Amino acid sequence: MLAMFRPLELFIGLRYTRAKRRNHFISFISFVSVLGVAVGIWALITVLSVMNGFENELRDRILGMASHSTIRSLDGGLKDWRTAAKAAINHPEVIAAAPFVHFEGMFMRDRQVAPAQIRGILPSEEPKVSDVADKMIDGSLTDLKPGEYGVILGASLARTLGVNKGDKVTLLTPRVSVTPAGLMPRLKRFTVVGLFRVGMYEYDNGMGLIHSKDAATLLRMGDDMTGVRLKLTDMFDAPRITRELTGEVSGAYYITDWTRQHANFFKAIKMEKKVMFVILFLIVGVAAINIVSTLVMLVTDKQSDIAILRTLGITPKSVMLIFMIQGLVIGVFGIMIGVITGVLTALNVESIVSWIETTVGHKFIDPSVYYISDLPSNLVWGDVALISVMAFIISLLATIYPAWRASRTKPAEALRYE
């Protein structure tokens, strides 16, 4: 942008910014303007980086336990799940398939009761479609053996029930048994054979894994499964791959992908990012207003200087460019400081928050309230560039009116009382 200015205007404009002003209040307003631009950009870069980090972390953790795509039956249990899984695997962009049984239940231990999502899995197949095997903190998936009724609990759920590996828990299923005394809920005693922690409260505090054959026995499903979970080569291309699978996997099935199952959640995050961008960019807007007021006061203070320059042959356009340079210097300094502090904060936000939590003795992100317990950050340089360009444009627009007003100064009137 400075290339459009000729050397004379650039020299005078930069000299004005370096010169010691008689009016210290103008200098203070200039400092506030620089600070306002810097704070706005710093806040924008930091907040957007944290929100990007949250989105990526949540997506990874959700898909670490959920599936990229799922095949289910239209009429309940999936009887010929092997055929469906084989047909899906034939697609070149499907990496793996694993059957599962899913139902809601309730674990009981002494007087402790906790609801949970129960997932019946095949231990040999589950690691192909989820990350739970890598999140085990005690035991392993292979400890789930059919007929032994073992269960792997989320770490927080186990703590709620007060159990560890080797302890017994009772599972209350949604099915009932007909007895002479009437309908009775179906109960089964399980042995805790492992614990996992994925770092997401929804799963750590509300999920139990059992062998799929044990789950099918409890629900009297025989050899049926609830569905088949699929892992794809590119999870972001899941909608297209799912549409193709719908045409290739024949039968009474319906296939969904993670973008449908969690669509509202991720749309809400994107909308929140846009709203936060607009709100925080208002800080830069306020700083731009300060630039306007600074230049207006500076033009008033420099009336005699402007008049002398005009009598020496400086054109109104040159006068306008001189004061635009001053405004842009304020904006550029603010942008540079904001970008540097914003990038440094975004790259070290986890360490900064951890230090603050240790210092004040309070954890800001309660895992029982938020989906995750850490504060992730993902700096996207495209966001930094967009913020910087928009701040520069705002700073440039803020200089137009005061510079135009300076160019309208009439030498005779300005020098009348000098």
Question: Could you please describe the fold and organization of this structure?
Answer:
This protein is an alpha+beta fold and 418 residues long. The chain has 2 domains: 2-60 and 265-414, no CATH class; 67-258, no CATH class. It has helices at residues 7-18, 24-65, 81-89, 155-161, 201-204, 212-219, 238-248, 258-261, 263-301, 303-311, 316-347, 349-360, 381-407, 411-414; strands at 69-73, 94-109, 112-121, 136-138, 150-154, 168-179, 182-196, 207-211, 227-232, 253-257. Strands 2-3-8-5-7-6 form a 6-stranded mixed β-barrel. The longest helix has 42 residues, at 24-65.
Distance between the termini: 36 Å
Q: Estimate the mean pLDDT confidence.
A: 82
Number of helices: 14
Which shape, going by the Cα principal axes? elongated
Integer-rounded radius of gyration: 32 Å
The biggest beta sheet is recorded as: 6 strands, mixed, barrel
Structural class: alpha+beta
Strand content: 15-25%
Query: Which ranges are low-confidence, i.e. pLDDT below 50, for 5 or more consecutive residues?
Result: none
When the domains are counted, the total is: 2
What percent of the residues sit in helical stretches (DSSP H or I)?
40-55%
Number of strands: 10
What is the string of helix and strand elements? HHEHEEEEHEEHEHEHEHHHHHHH
Order of the strands making up the biggest sheet:
2-3-8-5-7-6
Annotate the secondary structure layout.
Blueprint: H1 7-18, H2 24-65, E1 69-73, H3 81-89, E2 94-109, E3 112-121, E4 136-138, E5 150-154, H4 155-161, E6 168-179, E7 182-196, H5 201-204, E8 207-211, H6 212-219, E9 227-232, H7 238-248, E10 253-257, H8 258-261, H9 263-301, H10 303-311, H11 316-347, H12 349-360, H13 381-407, H14 411-414
Parallel strand pairs: 3-8, 5-7
Antiparallel strand pairs: 1-9, 1-10, 2-3, 2-6, 2-9, 4-7, 5-8, 6-7
Helix pairs in contact: 1-11, 2-9, 2-11, 2-13, 9-11, 9-13, 11-13
